[in-house]
Amino acid sequence: MGKLIIPPRIKKGEYVGFVSPSAGPSPLAMHRIENAKKALEKLGYKVKIGKKALQSRGDVSGTIEERVSDLHDMFADPEIRMIMCTIGGNDSNQLIKHLDYDLIRNNPKIFIGYSDITVFHYAIQSQAGLATYYGPCAMTQFGEYPEVLPYTLKYFNREVVAGDDTDHEIPASETWTDEFLNWFKKEDLKRARTLKKNNGYEWIKKGVAEGSALGGAILSVNHLAGTKYWIDPKGAIFFIDILKENDLLNENAVFSLLTDLDNLDVFEKINGLIISRPAGFSEEETSRLKEKVLSFFENKKCPILFNANIGHTDPIATIRYGQKIRLDSSRDVITMV
User: Is-catalytic flag, 312?
Assistant: First the structure.
């Protein structure tokens, strides 16, 4: 793949557009949308909301045509500088063969989100050549009560806001949480989530490596195997966002999915691996997961970092796809180059 188009950074006074290209919980938790809008406005931005972004049709926010239309409208709107997904879901893969990639290529702007938004990141990069961002969503991070977590905001700003774009290090956060206070009963408005002490990065394999950022939520990455949207991970620093979902993703499923990636020779091709802090697992389950990860990658040679601030636990860092990343276990840091 050729050199990626890097969209212009956003400036104060410019517009952020909200879209819901997958799940559609907005009508049941409108205060999260309102909190996100206020948070971004407080930072100096303006917000436009997609025509269908605040509706719900079962598990998704709208028909395929409605969700595609919202995305196209946002890319075509000259005022929009950043397109932020309200949340992830499980159905982004329904849209990717319907997108106008010429429109996207000709109107480069920041596109940001995580979880199954991974599918769009791969599709937009592979088909439009545009670098996108694995990072905060509106409802999940910017809708946080009483405000977005400082670590999340700091590394969001470092990647997408106009200003300092020099090399910077991303240390482990001091605290973390994956607590869910029921949005739909507005329990999240009663108190801030409880933060736990973070034990820091853990190096499954030590070493130094450099490569371009690639990866995402593990289930979503695997959706793309064998399709035209798949991206060859050769030379990448590959990141994997691991989460638990009832009836969909548990300990055994995670390792089945890792085996899929291994069968695709992903781990033979990459220069280094970053694994998120597992989200939704108990301490006992996380301990078992780590032991299984140690065993799974026992014979791999590249540096492997575990317990990173990516994706489904908070706070999170923002990663631009294709960005050069340096791993260095001796310094215990991730450096964005």
Answer: yes
